[in-house]
Design goal:
Blueprint: H1 2-15, H2 19-37, E1 47-48, E2 59-67, E3 71-80, E4 85-94, H3 111-123, E5 132-138, E6 142-146, E7 149-152, H4 169-179, E8 185-191, H5 193-202, E9 208-214, E10 218-227, E11 232-237, H6 250-258, H7 266-271, H8 273-289, H9 308-315, H10 323-331, H11 339-371, E12 379-384, H12 386-390, H13 394-406, E13 413-417, H14 421-433
Parallel strand pairs: 2-5, 5-8, 9-12, 12-13
Antiparallel strand pairs: 1-11, 2-3, 3-4, 6-7, 9-10, 10-11
The structure holds alpha-D-glucopyranose.
């Protein structure tokens, strides 16, 4: 047992982020932001969105497409013009059929077929008559030259559809709508999901300056008060999951090297839901291999066999005998452990999850110090994603880290959930662009 305690204590040292390190990461993040904004080759792309803040008075019915992974949603959203919105109709559908009837995410599928499929779903929710602005959340790295033009730089999240990389996804969706005779649905804006999250909160809360996703993927955007491209306020999609200013541990290196794109998305691989379970698996495997934890099973050697939901279940276990941890460990093929071994598994899971919150908070601290060095204004950070919403202790750790970093001034910062922000935000983005007084004039 002595050796297990020593091994866990060593892990605590390796994974914990000290107060000094937090400040250091925040400054490095700020440097990378400045470099990205001036066209440097740093790890932050700082992609302009050409969208500013909403006034809260945008009004009317708008179509929204939320395309952030293999499940897509189309919505008919009603913006009340008083900072409130309501979803009038929705369709949610996978791009890949479970029974194998279709797969629009494979390299054998074509871009026009993919967008025709989405246009077909839009046709099911557009009311008869009237013109409908359309906002498209497309949560992949895109180069934008205007609010409605977004060229996909490269697919991520396992999507490989042919003929979309290097093309304007806004134009592709509009063409698909026109082919179906739906030219009264008019694409106004293509945005990232982080931008949608920011816009949804900003519709009713003008203090919103940061939008973020802490879910399967991780990324943040912020409101640049005077963007050099337009000399006006503009939301910038930082693609912060690609930030490379955090020292990797040997476990991060193992995960990265075995991933599809080694070297890419280094912060995302340390903090997002896609990878937290895998990091815990790598660490626990190293303890079982060293004989610190007894395991009679090979299950732990299968990459990505530990879902991040299991980590949530482990962190939520407050029972003295750690029964829930035992249930999860049994699913991984390790049974009959002593309570202290279950405790070690819980400590490791907590360290990995809390490190994620520390790192994310440090990047936000970098943004806040850049846009408001004295923290004289109020700032709302709008967040969506399962990690933020469901991982026990995660949102509290984000808030505590802000307190640790800013002391009393952290009172100026509110971190809050922006549920469904990526869908509703697309509608708000379209409405901010569409200049008709009432969105649905005939
Ligand atoms: C990935 C994408 C990014 C998106 C994030 C959250 O990091 O590159 O655009 O915002 O996932 O969905």
């Amino acid at each position: 047992m002595e050796r297990l305690y020593t091994a866990v204590a060593r892990l605590e040292k390796e994974l914990a982020i000290s107060a000094i390190l937090l400040q250091d990461i925040a400054s490095r993040f700020q440097e990378a932001m400045n470099e990205g904004l001036t066209g440097g080759s740093g790890s932050l792309r700082m992609l302009p969105s050409f969208i500013g803040s909403p006034t809260g008075q945008e009004q009317g019915q708008v179509i929204a497409v939320d395309f952030g992974g293999t499940n897509v949603r189309v919505l008919l959203v009603e913006l009340a013009g008083t900072g409130r919105s309501r979803i009038v109709a929705r369709r949610a559908f996978p791009l890949k059929d479970k029974l194998g009837h279709y797969d629009y995410t494979a390299v054998s599928a074509s871009g026009p077929a993919l967008f025709d499929f989405i246009a077909g779903k839009i046709s099911e929710i557009v009311p008869a008559g009237g013109i409908y602005p359309l906002g498209h959340t497309f949560s992949f790295p895109c180069r934008q030259q205007g609010g409605d033009q977004a060229v996909l730089i490269s697919w991520t999240k396992e999507i490989k559809t042919a003929g979309v990389e290097g093309r304007d996804v806004g134009q592709m969706l509009q063409a698909a709508l026109e082919n179906r005779g739906l030219d009264r649905v008019r694409l106004q804006a293509v945005i990232n999901d982080t931008t949608g999250t920011l816009l949804t909160a900003a519709y009713s809360d003008p203090a919103t300056t940061i939008g973020a996703i802490c879910g399967t993927g991780h990324n943040s955007c912020y409101l640049e008060s005077c963007h050099p491209l337009t000399n006006r306020p503009m939301i910038v999609n930082m693609e912060s999951g690609n930030f490379d200013g955090v020292q990797q541990t040997k476990y991060d290196i193992l995960l990265d090297q075995a991933s599809e794109k080694p070297g890419a998305q280094r912060l995302e691989k340390m903090v997002s839901g896609q990878y937290l379970g895998e990091l815990v698996r790598i660490i626990i495997s190293s303890l079982t291999a060293a004989g610190h934890i007894a395991s009679g099973s090979e299950s732990l050697s299968v990459p990505y066999s530990l879902p991040t939901e299991d980590i949530s279940a482990i962190l939520g276990d407050t029972s003295p005998g750690l029964e829930a941890v035992a249930v999860v460990a049994a699913r991984w093929g390790i049974t009959q452990l002593k309570v202290c071994e279950y405790k070690a598994i819980q400590t490791i899971s907590r360290l990995v999850a809390m490190r994620s919150a520390w790192l994310v908070a440090a990047t936000w601290a970098g943004v806040l110090t850049k846009i408001d060095p004295g923290l004289v204004r109020q700032h709302t950070i709008a967040v969506d994603g399962a990690l933020y919403e469901k991982m026990p202790g995660y949102s509290e750790q984000l808030a505590n880290t802000m307190m640790e970093m800013f002391g009393d001034k952290a009172k100026q910062i509110t971190i809050r959930l922006s549920k469904d922000g990526s869908g509703i935000g697309a509608a708000i983005a379209a409405a901010t662009v569409y200049k008709g007084k009432y969105c649905n004039e005939r």
